[in-house]
Amino acid sequence: MSAIFVYESQPAWNPRLMSRTPLRRSPKHHLVDPSLAAAAVGANADALFEDRAALGLLFESMAVRDMRIYAQASRSTIFHYRDKSGLEVDAVVERDDGRWIAAEVKLGAPDSVDAAARSLLALSAKVDTSVSGPPAALIVITSTGQPHMRADGVGVVPLNTLSP
Predict the structure, then answer these.
(1) Which of 59, 60, 105, 77 is nearest to 13 (CA)?
(2) What's the pLDDT score for residue 147?
(3) Residues 69-92: pLDDT tens digits?
(4) Do residues 127 and 15 lie in contact, with contact meaning Cβ atoms separated by under 8 Å?
């Protein structure tokens, strides 16, 4: 299926960590166009709004697709992060000079944004910044709202405001 460009693999990020937490190294797979999944199961807008979990997965795939396009334009690679302690981050964008940004994708409920920010801050605390450097940004990508910076330093940005 990847030969006909139906999906793209998102490799696992492998930074040097401050702890010895084992990392999960298997890639995640995203459809090149999340609307393919919705069409394949015959989902319309009403059905997707009823199934917030499915809508969230499609939104994540769409956000990762957009970030991949922007990353390629700026000599960057997009990864995901998962470790055996249960910490997951949807996307880590790493430039060819080593600078990196971590992003979580959420539809926008305030409690999900808070949880996403906690995950981003936990990842930032685990990374050995003497090797990888500090994150250039930690962001939660949402579907709506105004871009803003939280008190903890995590940015909240709607998908439509992203650019290379």
Answers:
(1) 77
(2) 94
(3) 899 888 899 988 888 888 999 999
(4) yes
What's the CA gap between 162 and 159, in Å, rounded?
A: 6
Q: Where are the domains of the chain?
A: 2-161
The rounded distance, in Å, linking the Cα atoms of 110 and 150 is 12
Asked whether the beta carbons of 140 and 155 are under 8 A apart, the reply is yes
Q: Between β-strands 76-82 and 28-31, what pairing exists: parallel, antiparallel or unpaired?
A: unpaired
Please, what's the largest Cα pairwise distance for the chain?
A: 49
Of 120, 122, 128, the closest CA to residue 157 belongs to 120
CB contact at 8 A, 22 and 50 = no
Q: DSSP 3-state assignment of 7? A: strand
